[in-house]
Amino acid sequence: MEDKSKYNQRGVSADKTEVHQAIKNLDKGLYPTAFCKILPDFVAGDDNYANIMHADTAGTKTALAYLYWKATGNVKIWENIMQDAIVMNIDDMACVGITDNIILSSTIGRNKHLITGEVISTIINGAFQFCEKLKPYGINIHLSGGETADVGDIVRTIDVGYTTFARWPKNKLIVNNIKAGNVIVGLASFGQATYENVYNSGLGSNGLTSARHDVLSKYYEKNYPEVVDPNTPEAVRFSGSKKLTDSYNGYIIGDLLTAPTRTYLPILKKVFEKIDPSQINGLINCTGGGQTKVMHFAKNVSIIKDNLFKTPPVFNLIKEEADTNDKELYKVFNMGHRLEFYVNPSIASAIINIANQFNVEAQIIGKVVNSENTELNIINNGQNFIYQK
What we know:
By secondary structure, the chain is an alpha+beta fold. The protein is built from twelve helices and 14 strands.
């Protein structure tokens, strides 16, 4: 069975082809190549400002948190899920330059028979603590409330989502204009940043359906059928050999798979203070689509990624258990770096130095050259994987 077929049979899509097809005729906003849709300032009607609203969820990572919570009894695991859902919003918004005065609203749907009030409290209070943690870096996120609904008939366990809004000066926006001659500075998704309490595996919040079913064993389907879509073919359900409490390369597998999505806002806040946003030709959050995400924001260039980070353990674990080819892995997962700057070589070192101040590895991972077609080349371990638009 081909990996792509297996991924589709699980009811998910690495690059959300159907979604992009559905929205292709919708208005793209003021700046169609921006990472987030940017709207006119409907709030105050000031032509010098723009409005940005974003919505996202933790996706199926909540199923992993549910299983790990059941295995360990540690309700704090749900704080990671809260961070996943928030960061999937605020880091996307940061890719258009926004790092302050963000309004945040939550939407949580749960099956009350399975998800306790303690879990809900942990998620809601965790959001407050996460926002407080960012304040010393000059990042203010304002909680505006939200909706928590008991919807057991349509949600198997829990769905955690957030919506964010900001009003931002147009002259501080970043609009992608990736050019030949740019180098690509990648910021690691793994390790332990100065603002993180423990090692972060770097997995993020994409490809979790694959990670869960490829790594974990049938034990979970047998004992927790509520985390399995019965419409998914049996052959691709929990086909791995591991338990969440097993060890891999010195780490507990549950910790690797539920590590919270890293926010880069403290780093980006400082970068934007030192480097004018107009000098940044591209800023990409490698989420849905993994290393191919940039293809949605580039035109008539060849993007060459030929100096990637050493693959972190969590992705080696997934590869071993799934027996998946590398080309598919790069399309599903970030594989070690989740944030990419596309800039002139002269400012690359400044970005790297700022990231290093926060104990986040950074390096030039590639370059951009002229091309008649839009193309991505990932060159690693003697292999060259080519992706075309």
